[in-house]
User: Fold this.
Amino acid sequence: DVKVTQSSRYLVKRTGEKVFLECVQDMDHENMFWYRQDPGLGLRLIYFSYDVKMKEKGDIPEGYSVSREKKERFSLILESASTNQTSMYLCASGAIAGDAGELFFGEGSRLTVL
Amino acid sequence: AQKITQTQPGMFVQEKEAVTLDCTYDTSDQSYGLFWYKQPSSGEMIFLIYQGSYDEQNATEGRYSLNFQKARKSANLVISASQLGDSAMYFCAMRDSNDMRFGAGTRLTVKP
Assistant:
């Protein structure tokens, strides 16, 4: 059974803290993604990676960075958390199938920044 | 840049009736894929159906079908014989090359 695992389901952090969100997939997928989901805005792409050590900015990369040192792991980093980063964060992975491959999602990490 | 538009924030349908959820997209690429996902209140993202830009026939998966009109850049999801369990958020998405982008979603409520 395919699996994308996000390390934390719920986090509460303070403004200015550094936050790490971890994501691990067991499907040997080349592509991994980080989205944030907010009511009325759908899923917005923060960053994605198509290979180890490679990353591409999505639509809302400001305030975030990512790390992909191993194929199975993709981390989202908030260098200095702010209250407007309170959101649900979804990690996903997909095979390198051009436009044809669906994404598999983790359960999400709900981050609250106080 | 890609843009996915879902103009219906919320929809209601009577149980056992069919419902169409709208999705339009904008891309300059010739090759792309269109997807629909379901997100129930539990939060998981469930893949429903896929349509490739070069596919001539509309995709179908059980009670789900995708009404693909390439010239109009629309990819509407049709759910036939709605069930109470179909109540959820539905997201349209488009993928070209490696990345995938989503619309704002439509919340479908099935009434008994």
Summary: Chain A touches chain B at residues 31, 33, 35, 40-45, 48, 50, 56, 58-59, 88, 90, 92, 94, 96, 98-105, 107-108 (CB under 8 Å). The CA atoms of residues 46 and 58 of chain A lie 5 Å apart. The mean pLDDT of chain A is 93. Chain A has no helices and twelve strands.
